[in-house]
Amino acid sequence: MADVKENNSKPNAKSGGKKKEVKKETGLGLSNKKDENFGEWYTEAVVNGEMIEYYDISGCYILRPWTMTIWEIMHDFFDAEIKKMKIKNCYFPVFVSPEVLQKEKDHIEGFAPEVAWVTKSGNTDLEVPIAIRPTSETVMYPYYHKWIRGHRDLPLKLNQWCNVVRWEFSNPTPFIRSREFLWQEGHTAFATKDEADEEVLQILELYRRIYEEFLAIPVVKGKKSEREKFAGGLYTTSVEAFIPNTGRGVQGATSHCLGQNFAKMFDIKFENEKGVSGMVWQNSWAYSTRTIGVMVMVHGDNKGLVLPPQVASIQVIVVPVPYKDADTQAIFDACSETVRMLTEAGLRAEEDLRDNYSPGWKYSHWEMKGVPLRIEIGPKDMANKQVRLVRRDNSSKIDIPTSDLVEQVKGVLDKIQQNLFDVATQKRDASIRVANTWEEFTLALNEKKLILAPWCDEMEVEEGVKQRTKGEMGAAKSLCTPFDQPELPSGTLCFASGKLAKKWTYWGRSY
C-alpha cells in the first residue's frame, strides 16, 4: 500500500464540473475508486467515514467514536469469553527497564528496531533510558517468577487491555501499521504442555469468531513456519485474512505457545505434588485494532465504509423524507417513534432529523459511514402505515408494514451480516491458486493471488522464496500452514525446491 498522506481527504483541485463542486462543499463522496487506487481509497474511507483523524506525529492516529464502538463490541465479546476460561484481567506499566528488556535475547532481537525509548525528563537526561513496551513478555514474567512457587499457583492466567508502541516501520497505514495501537494481550502459565496446547487452540477459535461472526471476514486457521513464528516462542498459530484487491494476506491475530523458553530465561519454576521442581509452560496471545482495518479493506466500496451489523455503532439510521406541504413534524415524530421501538428491542438505531440537510445528502452521508440499514419515512409511507428499508450492502429496497417493524428489521440485519460474509468468502476463494511448480507460483504471485503450494518445510527454502521474489511489491513469504490440510498425494514435490513435500502451505505477499 502507498504511504498514507495527511492531505488525502482534501478535494481534488483538478476536478471540474458542477457535481464535483457539490462534493467539495458537502465533503461527501470518495474521489478514489477501490479497484483503481486502493491505498488512497482506503485513506479516504477511514477519514471521511469518521473512523480516524490524523495526528501531528506520523504513524499515530486519533480513533474516533465510530471506531471505538466497534472495538468495544469486540472487547465485550472476547472479555466475557476469556472470563469463562477463568482468565483474569490485570494491568502492567507501559515502561520497561533496559535490564529486563534485554534479558531474553532472541525475543527482543525481533522487536529491537521498533522499541521507543524515553531518554529525558524535562531537560534532564535520564541516567538509564526507559523503554516503552512493544509487547509485555519481558514486563510481566519477572513477576510470574515471583508469584509462582508451587503447583497450587498454577495455572496463572492473566490478560491486559492496553496500548503498545512499535516505532520503526515504513508506510504507516491507519489500523494496519501504526506506531501506537490498542490490543489485548494474554499471558498464561501451566504445569503441563498439554494444558498450554489446549488453550492455544481455544483462544485461536475465539479469534476466528471475532473475524467471521462479528466482522464477517473469512479466515484460515493455521500454524506459522519456524521462520515466521513469534521470536523466542515454541510455535505460533494464527488466523489469516486476505485482501483480494491488493493480493496481500493479513495476519489477523496470533496465539503462541511459548514452551519453556521464557520460563528458563526468567526462572519461572514450580514444585509439583511430589516436591519435584519443574519449569512452567507458557502461552501468549493477542489481537489488536488491526482487525478494524481489515474489515474496512474487505467490505468497503466506492461509496465508503460498509459495516457488518454485529459491530456497527448505528445499525439502523432513520431518515425523514418530507415532501412539499407535508406535515414535517408528524414525519419527525414517526421517525422518533420508529427509533424508540427499535432501541427498546435492543437494536442500535438513531434518527437524523437535521433540517439543514436534504434527504439525499443524508443518504450519502450515512452510506459513507457504512450504516447497514436505512429506514426512510415520508408522507406516503405514513399514509400506508409502512416504512422503506434500504440495505447498505447491496442497495436493495423493501417496503414493510410498521406493525411488523422490529422482526422484519432484525431479519434484514441478519441477512446483511450473512451476505457480507458470503460475498467476502466468495471473493477470497476466487483468489486462491494452487501452485505445484515455481512457474505456477510466480505467475499466481504476479496475479496477486493467495497461493496454496506443497512445501518441504525447510527454512532455507522459505528464505530462498523470499530472496527470489523481492521486488517493488515486496517479497512473498509463507502465511500459514492450514490446520485443514488437503490431501497430499504420495510423491508430491515442493514447489520451490523439488524435494518431497511434507504439507500444504499458504504463501503470498502480506501487510
UniProtKB/TrEMBL annotation:
InterPro entries: aa-tRNA-synt_IIb, aa-tRNA-synth_II, aa-tRNA-synth_II/BPL/LPL, Anticodon-bd, Anticodon-bd_dom_sf, Pro-tRNA-ligase_IIa, Pro-tRNA-ligase_IIa_arc-type, Pro-tRNA_ligase_II_C. GO terms for cellular component: aminoacyl-tRNA synthetase multienzyme complex; cytoplasm. It catalyses: tRNA(Pro) + L-proline + ATP = L-prolyl-tRNA(Pro) + AMP + diphosphate. Residues 1-26 are annotated as: Disordered. Residues 70-308 form the Aminoacyl-transfer RNA synthetases class-II family profile domain. GO terms for biological process: prolyl-tRNA aminoacylation. PANTHER family: BIFUNCTIONAL GLUTAMATE_PROLINE--TRNA LIGASE, PROLYL-TRNA SYNTHETASE. This is proline--tRNA ligase. It comes from Kingdonia uniflora.
